[in-house]
């Protein structure tokens, strides 16, 4: 009886050779691929006779089954190869993606640092721009005063026997800042701008520190006021509601000029000021201004005779 293992090896060899394109292989070729002796294929039993017939070209389900198994194995191998290639491609794409992500992350970090730097610079630039705008406004105001004065002088020059002294008003407007250091900084900067040297200070004919709540009428008083002496009349306009603020202002002004320093105190009821602010401001601006005048009311210190002023002018504001 033929060995089942030897038969399986023989049929597998035939199927493999047919898979390779050899339709009718020789017995020697089948024996070599199967690893069997050539004599095994010439045994006289029916099973080996069938093997020899299949080698010569007879169809056999056993060979077909082996071919199918070999085909399935080849397909599986092909799929494994395809998957391996796809995995390699995915790994390459992942590496490229990681590299791109690192580059994008670094660019984002650089951009964030750039905007942080810009944000740090912005307040300084805004403050500088604000200062320049205030200087331009003051220069425009001075120009308007000079033009008005020129027109008035031309009119006076056409009149006979009329001599009028020349007066120029210069105004330093102080913010109602919660931080006194900001107020003092604006004050000193404005004095340096208006009087850059000792020669320019000699033209000062008088100084007026105008004090009072916001919207109390300080600007109106300055516009109406007519200084008695020719030269530059310097007005320091602000709330100036505490003795410490007024002391700082007078201390610096005494170093600037030997002329009289007067305090103009605009006297007005707190409720009137609050109503004026309600009419003048809306929304958030009104809330901020309301807080500001309430803070001033709490800190308010009426000017006293003991303070370093040459004159004190109490002015009752019109309702």
Features:
five-stranded parallel β-sheet; alpha/beta; 319 residues; 5 strands; rod-shaped; 62% helix; Rossmann fold
Output the structural class. alpha/beta
CATH topology of the domain at 165-316: Rossmann fold
Shape: rod-shaped
Distance linking N and C termini: 135 Å
Count of beta strands: 5
Low-confidence segments, given as residue ranges, are none
Global mean pLDDT: 82
Query: Can you summarize the main beta sheet?
Result: 5 strands, parallel
CATH superfamily of the domain at 165-316: P-loop containing nucleotide triphosphate hydrolases
Helical content class = 55-70%
Structure explained in plain terms:
- The structure is a single chain.
- This protein has 319 residues and is an alpha/beta fold.
- Among the domains are: 4-59; 165-316, Rossmann fold.
- Helix content is 62%, strand content 11%.
- The chain is built from ten helices and five strands; from the N terminus they run ααααβααβαβαβααβ.
- The chain has helices spanning 4-19, 27-34, 46-55, 61-157, 180-194, 198-201, 218-224, 243-256, 270-280, 283-299, and strands at residues 167-173, 204-211, 231-237, 261-267, 311-316.
- It has a five-stranded parallel β-sheet with strand order 1-3-2-4-5, sandwiched between helices.
- Strand 2 (204-211), helix 7 (218-224) and strand 3 (231-237) form a beta-alpha-beta unit.
- The termini are far apart.
- The model has no long low-confidence stretch (mean pLDDT 82).
């Amino acid at each position: 009886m033929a060995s089942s293992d030897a038969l399986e090896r023989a049929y597998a060899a035939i199927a493999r050779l047919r898979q390779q394109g050899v339709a009718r292989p020789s017995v020697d070729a089948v024996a070599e691929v199967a690893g069997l002796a050539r004599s095994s294929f010439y045994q006289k039993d029916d099973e080996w006779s069938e093997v020899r017939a299949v080698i010569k070209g007879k169809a056999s389900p056993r060979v077909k089954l082996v071919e199918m198994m070999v085909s399935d194995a080849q397909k599986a191998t092909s799929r494994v190869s395809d998957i391996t290639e796809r995995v390699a491609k995915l790994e390459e794409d992942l590496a490229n993606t990681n590299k791109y992500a690192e580059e994008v992350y670094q660019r984002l970090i650089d951009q964030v640092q750039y905007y942080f730097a810009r944000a740090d610079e912005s307040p300084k630039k805004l403050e500088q721009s604000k200062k320049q705008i205030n200087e331009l406004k003051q220069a425009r105001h001075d120009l308007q005063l000079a033009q008005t004065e020129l027109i008035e002088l031309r009119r006076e020059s056409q009149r006979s026997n009329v001599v009028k002294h020349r007066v120029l008003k210069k105004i330093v407007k102080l913010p109602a800042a919660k931080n006194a250091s900001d107020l003092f900084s604006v004050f000193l900067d404005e004095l340096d701008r208006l009087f850059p040297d000792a020669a320019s200070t000699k033209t000062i004919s008088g100084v007026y520190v105008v004090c009072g709540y916001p919207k109390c009428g300080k600007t109106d008083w300055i516009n109406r006021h007519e200084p008695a002496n020719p030269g530059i009349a310097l007005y320091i306009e602000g709330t100036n509601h505490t003795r410490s603020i007024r002391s700082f202002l007078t201390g610096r002004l005494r170093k600037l000029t030997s002329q009289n320093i007067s305090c103009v105190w605009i006297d007005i009821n707190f409720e009137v000021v609050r109503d004026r602010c309600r009419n003048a401001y809306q929304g958030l601006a009104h809330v901020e201004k309301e807080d500001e005048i309430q803070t001033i009311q709490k800190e308010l210190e009426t000017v006293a005779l003991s303070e370093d002023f040459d004159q004190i002018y109490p002015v009752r504001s019109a309702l």
